[in-house]
Each structure stands twice: as C-alpha cells, then as structure tokens.
Write a structure and sequence with these properties.
Length: about 350
C-alpha cells in the first residue's frame, strides 16, 4: 500500500515539478519511516533542503528526456569491499523511494509467469482477464531515478548508495573538478547506475547478496514515522501494543543493518548517512549560493549499467504495458496452450 501511495504522490508532485518557488521545506512531509521530499527538492548531507535549481543547471524530468545511448551489464559483486581511507571523503544516502520514473523497465520470465497466473485465475472466475497495471499505478518493473550531486572537495569521494523497496537507477552528477574514487550500491531491489565518471570503481552488493552478507536493508522509524506518530496520538484507535511490537521488530532489524554497515565501511550509519523515505535528489559536499552550478546529466544519451534481467524495455509506460501484456498472452497461448476465452466459458 505504501508503495502505491508513494508512486501516486510522486506522479502528482511531478505535475508541478518546474514550480520551484517558496520554501522548499514546505515540500518535505512526514512519511512511513521519516520524511519524504518532493521531486525538485535537493537534500543536502547537512540535512538542509534546497530547490534543485539553486545548485544545478539543466534539470529535466528523466521520464521525458529519452532513452540511454548504451546499456551495459552491472556486475553483481561479493560482500567484501575496500573500506574508505582517510584520503577519501565518505558520503552515504539511504532512501526508500524516488518519485521520479525513468524510461527503463527490467523484468524476468518469473514476472511474466506470475502475471499469466493472474490472467488464468480471472478467467476461471468468469471475470474479464486482469489488465496489467490497473489505473495509473506506476509499473513495479520501472527503474526510478535518484540523482546524486557531488560538489568539488579537497579529497576524492567514496559513495555508498542504499536503496529500499523501489527499483532504482542512480544518476551521478559531479561538479567540475569533483573526483569520485568508489561507488558502492546496496539493496535487494533491481539497481542500475548512469553517468559514472571515468576512473570511478563501482561495486554492487545487490539482489540476493545483501541477505548472504547479513546486510539486508532496514530503515528506522524516526519521530516523524507513521508508527511513532500513532503511538503519540492519544486519539488514535490503533492497538498500541501491536504498534509497539511492530516498532520493536523494525528497530531490531535496523540495528543489525547498522552493525553490518559499520563492519563493512567502518562508519556509523546514523551519523554518516542521509536517511529519507524519498530523496529524489541528494547533494554531497558543501555548496553556497554563489558556487558554480553543477551541470545536470540526463539519462537520455548516457551509458547505463543495469543489473542482469531476462527482459528490458526502454520507452514510456504505455508502450511497456502493451509489450508486457503481449508477452503474457504469448506465454499463455503459444507455450502453455491456454485459451482464456475457453476458460471463461467453463
């Protein structure tokens, strides 16, 4: 439910994404675990909020700027990765969702089989076969975009990019003169990365690897999160014992993740990491109003490294839905020999 809600809220937010006026803090709201920033709000490592136009030139919605020029496979690496050194600036972000869709979709045969089973169930119940993606919900196969801006610093950067539930493509935007030594991607979801600077090493701890490492991503509830808000609300009709039990479970698992983070990177997760339910754009390093702006690098025409899947689609959501449904019907009719019309008659 939270996934659907964030997708819908993100779509609504994008409708007015070019209107960057007023106080950006007003576009940051309490969400499931903590705070969620509307797209076009830039979240800095110091915990401040800015309009992206304050420090970035040329921002455009990734969903409408075209497809990548080249797609390469993103290797899935192991658990072990070199820790940051004193000669590197360490930065990290942990975000549950983005709110800004790309034109990249990734899925496997298992997804087609699951959808085919839904079609069969609907036909047997004498209902119209389920149409993929009811209404305007964002397809779960889409990769959403998280922009990462890096200011010029005295030392090269070491970045850890942690994603929660949504599939994500991290889009990297270094300032002129900024250097990035290492980028580490963490999360069990589908991930990709675009516009990686030459000479930057990318290490991915994704898919089933985090579970094997003991590094499954768990967010923590802050005082702005849903459960703490309900616990502190005397008018809430929710079962307080059940809420406390849920909070305790999440807290326990988050502590495990924080211990893995310290073991892997030698850093304190809470002190070193931007943690947001939604942070579409983040800024690492310090910039002031007079600083030269970072040039936005669109995914259109870029080189994107994607985790391996059976199928990819590059285009808009309408095109993807039509392609996906056609593949499901081919699977039913040609491979399985199943006629939905015949099932509906029985």
């Amino acid at each position: 439910m939270f996934r659907i809600a964030t997708a819908l809220l993100g779509a609504l937010a994008l409708a007015g994404c070019n209107e960057q006026s007023g106080d950006p803090n007003s576009k940051v709201k309490p969400a499931e675990y903590g705070m969620a920033a509307q797209p076009t709000v830039l979240v800095s490592g110091e915990g401040n909020y800015h309009w992206i136009s304050e420090f970035v030139d040329g921002f455009r919605l990734s969903a409408v700027t075209g497809n990548p020029a080249t797609v390469k496979q993103l290797a899935r690496n192991g658990c072990a990765v070199a820790q940051p050194t004193d000669e590197q600036e360490f930065h990290s972000v942990m975000t549950y969702s983005s709110g800004m869709s790309s034109r990249i979709f990734a899925y496997n045969r298992a997804d087609l089989l699951a959808e085919a089973a839904t079609y069969v169930k609907s036909a047997k119940n004498n209902r119209r076969p389920y149409q993929y993606m009811i209404g305007g919900r964002t397809p779960k196969e889409v990769l959403n975009v998280n922009d990462v801006m890096i200011a010029k610093q005295d030392k090269p950067a070491y970045l850890v990019l942690i994603s929660g539930v949504e599939n994500v493509v991290w889009n990297i935007h270094p300032a002129e003169g900024a250097k990035i030594d290492q980028i580490v991607l963490v999360g069990e979801n589908t991930q990709g990365i675009a516009n990686v600077p030459e000479g930057t090493n990318v290490h991915s701890i994704i898919g089933s690897t985090p579970k094997k490492c003991g590094g499954r991503v768990w967010f923590r509830y802050t005082e702005n999160g849903r459960i703490p808000r309900k616990l502190n609300d005397p008018t809430s009709g929710w079962d307080k014992d059940a809420l406390r039990e849920g909070l305790e479970k999440v807290t326990k698992n988050h502590r495990k993740f924080a211990l893995w983070f310290r073991k892997t990177f030698g850093k304190n997760l809470e002190k070193s990491t931007i943690q947001m339910d939604r942070a579409t754009h983040v800024l690492f390093g310090q910039m002031t109003t007079g600083s030269p702006k970072i040039t936005y690098q669109p995914i259109a025409g870029s080189v994107v490294h994607l985790a391996r899947h059976d199928h990819y689609h590059f285009g808009d959501q309408k095109e993807f839905r039509a392609k996906f449904e056609a593949q499901v019907m081919d699977l039913l009719n040609k491979e399985m020999g199943i006629s939905l019309d015949e099932l509906a008659k029985k």
